[in-house]
Design goal:
The chain is about 35% helix and about 20% strand. By secondary structure, it is α+β, with helices and mostly antiparallel strands. It starts with a strand and ends with a helix.
């Protein structure tokens, strides 16, 4: 249905019953077609609500005003209660006042301060009786439009008329009936002379009227010789169609301009016919109707129209372009219209499988897709992300395909979240919108990935080919890191892989600290050792949690020393109290271990790269500079390689556990402590206990210390006549497993020597000294 807008001060008396009270329920497209030029949609709605502007319709859904009878029999206009919620109280008062204002029957309006004039009493018109046709009505004319009357009015907004002849006035009254493709319009005439078929908006003719006069036929012939088909124009970007919100559409027939349309702009995609003709260009608004569809020719004089184009330009066409139209230019900027394909697209059919590849002529159900943003990324095209945008049912024509602009070089990375076939991973990373050239580019620079791709592997994400030496250097550095991680992660079992990824921060922390120690001793170092040395903890949370664990370990150590040592010298141990106290402390320890398994490195997502490449919303892309040189996680790939290599070299994996004896070192401890005259007792005890733990499982204890958060190793070492020593150790990861050249007991004893050097007297540990062990 057609709408128009007037100011309240210009509202005429005959329009009082035409005020649309349900404007809030109308779709954006309907409102945008009557939106005053230069006004935002929200402002327009606000002015309708406040009564500054009035939306009129020949058949309003909910009239804002209605006539009511007073006791005197006089009829007055009152505000319709069904429409009150849509208007402010001020607007309701203004409307009623307008109906009482003097001179309100004129468009020029009167002053609200003048004397009110009552409307005449309403008298219903008598029913119209069917009358026989006038003598001499012997001719008829029929034409067809491939849509319903309602869609024609809402999307195109034109009316039709047959021009006058010397013997008969113009004919504007039509009978309609449904047809296979839409609606047939028919009119009767007394004069059979050819007439011009006029399509107009108000008094303005549209370009499709500029054809030879049509021929009338004898009455009841039923011949349809002319027909039209409205279409919704669109533009393709990537794998999606969208509605341009700026620019111009052009309808050409036989290389002649039929109509120029200007798009509204400001994120609005409706358009209006301008005053341009083929002879004279003028982009000023030519009609007061905003359209959502363009009326094309279907048949002229019973022949299907072929040489017809729709063109899209981001700027108005020039005189030179119009004077030099040719097939190549039309093909570059527009689409040749195939009426048969258009009619086929309108037929009921099942929706195409997703993803749908846009065709030149598309069924409306196939062009709707999920897209959260209003505009397609990086463009001014309105996303077709709601079925309401194509509810007219008209075919959608792809007028033009926009080229994908080459992106500037940028570099990101992401990490694989779970082990899976490589093809499956690509499907989760890419979307239907990801250009094929971008997909090929990313795959090209990720040949290092395993297949199946392993959890934690680094995926290199460039936006384009590098051009400068600096760009090539950055890309090479990132690929070097990614390769290192892929090589070592590819060697792990699924269980070991999960351990590396779950506890990477903790393992990296200890790898860094221990690598510095073993390097000072001249022991073999890993091929990637330089990456971790000097880096330290990548997150302050690791150090904080370890401090907390140290405190709990100190309490456990005190419990063992006080209970076990005293029990060995004085009385039997109180097992009930001992077990209860130990359970409380171990529960606290479990909580601290659990905290260590949580990732605390928060690398910001690199949203722009993901948007530019149109990658999956589920993927998290980071700036590659966070790995290269000085970032949040410098040398991430090589540091992952160190951790993975350590876990790979360990012979076993375990969780939080207790080691409550060190029989293999008992004799050495007894001998040293029995004959201790030079301070060797503490050193030997420390060395032997850690040698035992290092050899337990052939080095397994080292990696076990880091598997479930960290393994808690408690050694209670004691023999008759020797001091009881309680040892609580956290972290022999590198000594036990990370270094391929340090195995089992050798690594454990080396670490024991290191630990001993950090304490004053193993029999008189203080809290500070104990903390140095960890």
């Amino acid at each position: 249905m057609g709408y128009r807008v007037v100011k309240l001060s210009e509202l005429a008396s005959y329009e009082f019953g035409n005020i649309e009270g349900a404007f809030a329920e109308l779709g954006e497209r309907e409102l945008e077609r009557v939106l005053p030029q230069g006004m935002a949609l929200n402002t327009f709605k606000a002015q309708l609500q406040e009564g500054q502007l009035v939306l009129l319709s020949d058949a309003p859904n909910t009239p804002a005003l209605s006539l009511s009878s007073a006791s005197s029999g006089e009829k007055t206009w009152q505000f319709n209660t069904a429409a009150q919620s849509r208007f402010s109280p001020q607007a309701q008062t203004a409307f009623v006042s307008r109906t009482k204002a003097q001179g309100s029957s004129s468009r020029s309006g009167g002053s609200a301060g003048t004397q009110a004039v009552s409307e005449p009493a309403y008298t219903p018109q008598p029913p119209v009786e069917d009358k026989p046709e006038k003598p001499g009505v012997n001719y008829e004319y029929l034409f067809e439009v491939a849509c319903s009357e309602k869609v024609l009015a809402s999307e195109v907004g034109c009316q039709f008329a047959l021009g006058k002849t010397p013997k008969e006035a113009s004919i504007v009254s039509w009978e309609t009936k449904p047809s296979e493709h839409g609606t047939v319009f028919s009119a009767k005439a007394t004069d059979g002379a050819p007439r011009k078929l006029i399509a107009k908006v108000a008094n303005t003719e549209k370009g499709v009227s500029n054809k030879e006069p049509v021929k009338l036929k004898p009455k009841d012939t039923g011949a349809v010789r002319e027909a039209f088909i409205p279409v919704v124009p669109s533009i393709q970007l990537g794998l999606r169609l969208g509605f341009p919100t700026e620019g111009f559409y052009y309808h050409f027939h036989n290389n002649k301009l039929v109509q120029e349309y200007k798009i509204l702009g400001e994120d609005r995609w409706a358009f209006y016919a301008t005053r341009s003709t083929h002879e004279k260009l003028n982009t000023e608004q030519g009609t007061n109707k905003y359209q959502g569809a363009i009326l094309l020719y279907w048949k002229i004089d019973s022949k299907v129209v072929k040489d017809q184009h729709l063109v899209y330009l981001d700027q108005a066409i020039t005189r030179e372009q119009l004077d030099n139209l040719n097939d190549d230019w039309l093909a570059e900027h527009g689409a040749l219209i195939d009426v048969t394909a258009l009619l086929a697209a309108m037929q009921p059919q099942q929706a195409a499988e997703k993803p749908y590849k846009p065709q030149t002529f598309n069924a409306p159900a196939n062009v709707v897709y999920d897209h959260k943003e209003r505009l397609l990324m990086g463009s001014s095209l309105k996303a077709i992300n709601n079925e309401r945008l194509v509810e007219s049912g008209l075919p959608v024509v792809k007028v033009k395909t926009l080229p994908s602009e080459e992106l500037a070089f940028d570099l990101g990375y992401c990490q694989v979240e779970k082990t899976q076939p490589l093809d499956d991973y690509w499907r989760t990373l890419f979307t239907e919108d990801t250009p094929t050239d971008i997909q090929s580019l990313i795959k090209k620079y990720n040949e290092h990935l395993n297949n199946p791709v392993r959890e934690g592997e680094i995926v290199v994400v460039p936006t384009s080919e590098p051009k400068s030496e600096e760009e090539k250097s950055r890309l090479d550095a990132l690929i070097d890191e990614a390769k290192a991680a892929s090589i070592e992660l590819g060697k792990l079992t699924d269980e070991a892989l999960a351990t590396v990824n779950r506890h990477f921060e903790l393992l990296d922390y200890y790898a860094s600290e221990a690598l510095k120690s073993v390097k000072e001793d001249g022991l073999p170092s890993d091929v990637y050792a330089h990456a971790s040395l000097g880096v330290g903890a990548v997150a302050s949370g690791v150090s904080k949690h370890l401090t907390n664990i140290n405190q709990i370990l100190l309490e456990i150590n005190d419990l063992y020393v006080s209970q076990v040592a005293m029990a060995g010298r004085i009385a039997a141990i109180d097992h009930i109290k001992f077990n209860a106290d130990r359970a409380v402390l171990l529960k606290k320890l479990d909580g601290s271990f659990a905290a260590l398994s949580k990732r605390s490195i928060n690398v910001p997502a690199y949203i722009q790269v993901k948007k530019n490449l149109k990658l999956s919303t589920r993927s998290i892309i980071h700036n590659a500079d966070e790995i290269i040189a000085r970032g949040l996680v410098p040398h991430l790939g090589k540091r992952m390689a160190i951790v993975a290599n350590g876990v790979s070299n360990a012979r076993g994996l375990g969780y939080v556990a207790l080691a409550l004896g060190a029989a293999s070192g008992a004799n050495n401890i007894y001998d040293a402590c029995s004959l201790d005259t030079n301070g060797e007792c503490g050193k030997v005890a420390t060395r032997e206990v850690f040698g035992f733990m290092g050899s337990w499982g052939g080095g397994a204890i080292g990696s076990s210390l880091a598997t479930g958060g960290t393994m808690l190793a408690l050694g209670v070492v004691g023999v008759t006549s020797a001091p009881v020593v309680a040892i609580a150790a956290v972290g022999a990861f590198v000594a036990g497993g990370a270094m391929g050249g340090i195995a089992g007991a050798t690594g454990g004893k080396a670490l024991g020597d290191i630990l001993y050097e950090s304490v004053i007297d193993i029999t008189e540990w203080t809290e500070d000294n104990l903390g140095n062990l960890f």
